[in-house]
Amino acid sequence: DFQYPHTFVLLGASGDLAKKKIYPTIWYLYRDNLLPKNTKFIGYARTKQTLEDVKEKSKKYIKVRPGDESKLKEFWEANDYVSGSYDKRVDYEFLNQHISKSEKGPVANRIFYLAVPPTVFEDVTVNIRNACVSIKGYTRVIIEKPFGRDDESSEKLSSHLAGLFKEEQIYRIDHYLGKEMVQNLMTIRFANQIFSPSWNRENIASILISFKEPFGTEGRGGYFDSFGIVRDVMQNHLLQILSLVAMEKPVTLNPNDIRDEKVKVLRHIKPIDLKNLLVGQYVGNPNGQGEEKLGYLDDPTVPKDSVTPTYAVAVIYIDNSRWQGVPFILRCGKALNERKAEVRVQYKDVPGDIFEGHTKRNELVIRVQPGEALYLKLMSKSPGMKFDLMETELDLTYSMRYREADVPDAYERLILDVFTGTQMHFVRNDELKEAWRIFTPVLKKLETERIKPLPYMYGSRGPREADAKLAESDFKYSGSYKWQKPSLD
Ligand code: BG6
């Protein structure tokens, strides 16, 4: 297919996501010659502006290395901008004519990226279906969360989409599925005999999947307040990681075989009980600098009495024979002390201890960001005459081991997958449905009972009560382990 004309239409081209993420991404793909040679890009939005304006706005976010200048010029020559409404069919007919102009030959494919607000989502998809589908090639649509805000609204959206496109045409982005270490989870689990036999309730005490961010909502308060951290990060990114960590081995690597397993493991999870959820909201740090002084409620776009969580810990149980009783702890928060996303698989204590209680638990750590790493914490004899134990690690830190490797950004991989028609790293309709089934009741409860989130200070580790939640979920943290950065020579 790569020899034929392709058109990538970016709807919502004047927005934040477009300039910060999508334009840079398509530029990198173009620069690295990863896209079909004859690809045209069209930005579409309500804003009346020129391509020059689009260029100007995204400039700050587009990295250009010395020597790339002529390629960048070529890239912008392959771009166009069309302004039009989201709800009028005639505007889309005009867009269609515009696309057709560069579609010489027997085959031409189209991809539509919907970086548009949820309020216009239905109009946009109907109009694409009615006026813009390719008559001589494939039409694929890429969509971004929010995919509804509960089971009902998500179901409504899904049936709306299903009335317009086939599931094979719909690419639901969860950009965590495009991250290197998230993609590595299946390899780690299923290509290593050392892990497979111990990956179960007999050996594993608990699994912690966490996401931390060192900044608050900063200008996104309007969107964030009607969603909250559970919908923004936990119900999608963290639950996706959970399914890859917990699922059974798929029959093959075929995308549908993988997604079948992901759905299956989710079906073993009961809706979360309020007692297994802890929520927090950040307050300003009076001794902090700049933004740190501001709490969530100080954001002018957030109602003064908002009870929307910016931090959450949920303890999830998978009722199948592999995992029954093993707590999967999902933890996420904004305005914390650091940026980090990782999975910690904590093994049980060694039975029949002969080391007088000095052994610490093994932990397999999969660090998604920053700095991809895979390390296994284990006990070893301290080198030398003494017969002491020490905590150490087998360490695969990518920046040390693969110094030349260039890890692509999640969006780059995922958009390329859409061109090649690979749905493995996209969310299938039934996965989404399960995710909402698990989270909707507790979200409703939080909202109708207006449960007050626990306060935590901007820049801290989160509410203190969260540590107790981890401890009661059989996750042991001793604080004695220190990772030492290996020296470079
Ligand atoms: C997005 C959330 O999906 O993921 C944001 O809406 C969050 O709130 C972001 O900041 C985090 O993505 P990353 O790739 O920076 O970890």
SS summary, helix count: 14
Q: Write out the strand line-up for the largest beta sheet, numbering strands in chain order.
A: 14-13-12-11-7-10-9-8-15
**Low-confidence parts, pLDDT < 50 over ≥5 residues?**
none
Which sequence of SSEs, written as H and E, runs from N to C? Answer: EHEHHEHEHEHEHEHHHEEEEEEEHHHEH
Class inferred from helices and paired strands: alpha/beta
**Morphology:** globular
What is the gyration radius calculated from CA atoms?
Answer: 24 Å
Structure description:
- By secondary structure, the chain is α/β, with parallel strands linked by helices.
- The protein is 33% helix and 20% strand.
- The chain has 14 helices and 15 strands.
- A 9-stranded mixed β-sheet has the order 14-13-12-11-7-10-9-8-15, sandwiched between helices. It has a 6-stranded parallel β-sheet with strand order 3-2-1-4-5-6.
- Strand 5, helix 6 and strand 6 (170-172) form a beta-alpha-beta unit.
- Helix 1 (16-31) packs across helix 12.
- It is globular.
- The chain starts with 5 loop residues before the first strand and ends in a 17-residue tail after the last helix.
- The mean pLDDT is 95.
- Bound molecules: 6-O-phosphono-beta-D-glucopyranose (BG6).
- 6-O-phosphono-beta-D-glucopyranose binds at residues 175, 213, 232-233, 341.
